[in-house]
Each structure stands twice: as C-alpha cells, then as structure tokens.
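Throughout our pipeline, every protein is held as a single compact record rather than as scattered files. The remainder of this section carries one protein's record, kept here as part of the documentation.

===
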Amino acid sequence: MKRILLILCALTFLLSLSIISYAQEAKTQSTAECIPDAPVKTEDMRYGKSPFNKLGRGAINTATCWLEIPAEVCRLSEEKGPFVGYTLGFAEGIFTTLLRGATGIFDAVTFIIPPYNKPLMKPEYAIDSLGDSFRSQADAQARPQ
C-alpha cells in the first residue's frame, strides 16, 4: 500500500510540474492579451499544445493499437493481392501493432515532457490508419475497370 501511495504522490508531483510550466508559458504573454474586455484568442488555448493531448494520444493508441492488423491486411491486399495481404499483411500488422502500442505507452508515460503535438508515428492514431486503408479500397472499387 505504501508503494502505491508513493507512486501516486510522485505522479502528482510530476503532473504539477507540467501544469506549472504550462502556466508560466501563458504568463509570459503580453498584458494587452489579458485585458478582460479584449476578445479571447483561441489559438493560445489549443488542446494540441497541452500535455493532455500527449496523454490522450498515448491512451488511445495503446487501446486501439490492434486496429493496425486489419489496416495492414487491407492495404497489402489492395496493393499486392489477397494472398500477400492475408499473410504478409498480417505479419506487418502484428509488428505495427506492437510498435503503435509501444509508442502509445511511451506517450502516456512521458506526457509531461514536451513536445506535446508531435506524434511518434504517422498517422497520429491507429483508427486513421484503418480509415485510410478502407478509403483506398473503396476508391479502387469505384474506379471503372
């Protein structure tokens, strides 16, 4: 129980450090931007520039990393045929799943450390990779033969 409490205290401390550094960035803005009657600039309050973006991306990629398997199968089936897609695509999907899961865990663990808006893998989320595969397959079917 003491170990869990110690870990929670350490994580709370690290989170407070990131919030303090994020607040200091906002504090360095000119005072003209802080006038209450002035319009609020939404560019300065982007979710993508916060540690929570990195934490969310890590959690989502860790939870949905398995979507890389059907994405790779679809992509390779479209490019090189069904047999290659189901065999080599499955193997590449397993590898990409492990890679996406590892980068998701890395993002979730290091969410306090900048940069917050630069993903380690492209596309940023596994669901985007699956969507790209299905879109390219739909486009190929829509083309006249």
Summary: The CA atoms of residues 81 and 144 lie 18 Å apart.
